[in-house]
Amino acid sequence: MPRGKRRSAADMGPSEDDRQSSKRLRNAFLSSLSSRRYSKVDDAFSQKRCLNWFREYTTADDPDTLGPEGMEKFCEDIGVEPENVAMLVLAYKMGARQMGFFTQSEWLKGLTDLQCDTPGKVQCKLDHLRNLLNDHNTFKVIYRYAYDFARDKDQRSMDIETAKAMLQLLLGKHWTLYAQFAQFLEQSKYKVINKDQWCNILEFSRTISNDLNNYDVDGAWPVMLDEFVEWLRLLRSQSTIS
To answer: What separation, in Å, do the N-terminal and C-terminal C-alpha atoms of the chain show?
Structure first.
């Protein structure tokens, strides 16, 4: 009886090793697809997740308001100090009415607009929030918002200590005369700043040159700024003499 031909490895089909390798590749591919699918779901903004996150910072006594203690924890979670300018811009995006507090509706409004429902997502937006201040008109809107946001709601004017802190935050790095103006406020009689003064300080910082030569004493500037110009000119003249 003639011997049959010995089949080659190719004729015998894939080996057990080949089948196992193919199975591993298929499983890895399916796992990758599944991972990407769930990742997209996690990346999508969820109002429910956003609200649950808000609840981490509130108390049982007042579940609809994030207060000072919750604010401190929130700032820790997103990696910024409470006095960071990004927090002011975030409050503006929320339409927050009182410094140190976010209501549930304010939280949802601002974070829905930013599409943020986790600390990591807010961290990714911090540069965006700061960069909003680079726009001339947006800066002016946020500057004006800051006055009503920061002042004591029982008072029509902002106390001078709060005003100095907010001016430092908003103008300290941009107005070359800020240090002199802060020094002027320190030695002045002013205990509060009203909204007209607040708004005119910004216009002054944007339009008046460092040498003060284009300042019109007969213009419609508040008396506070007339006094500042007079004080600074006297200070400079004394420095020149000495």
So the answer is: 126
Return the closest-CA partner of residue 116 out of 57, 54, 36. 54
And the tokens for 203?
A: 């216009």
List pLDDT tens digits, range 171-221: 999 999 999 999 999 999 999 999 999 999 999 999 999 999 999 988 899
The whole-angstrom separation of Cα 190 and Cα 92 is: 27
Residue pair 137/206 in contact (Cβ under 8 Å)? The answer is no
Q: What is the mean pLDDT of residues 104-122?
A: 98
Q: How far is it, in rounded angstroms, from Cα 179 to Cα 172? A: 8
The secondary structure of residue 219, as a DSSP letter, is S
Query: Shortest CA distance to 93 belongs to which of 45, 54, 141?
Result: 141
